[in-house]
Amino acid sequence: MDSRRQLKVGSVIQQAFTDILLREGKAIYGKAFVTVTKVKVTTDLGLARFYLSVYNTEDAEAVVENFNLHKHELKKKLIESKQIHLFDVNIFYDILF
Asked: For residue 41, which of 24, 82, 84, 89 sits 20 to 30 Å off, Cα-Cα?
């Protein structure tokens, strides 16, 4: 079970990441509709796992691959926006139609 601190940090990261995707996400995922369903943070706050839902695309795996290619750029923007320092970022996804 996640602590209150993990849940709060996860919520802050989720909101910041959603804002980044609203501003600059089209360059990464094109016409697909992507939502951040949840963010799970480890107890040491060093790793964040992003769970995405990908809609309106034929090739959701390509969308996730583009996220993985831009992972460092997204992490940098996340750090700049909320001054949150993460050691690693993993992106998981659900394909929903």
From this structure: 24
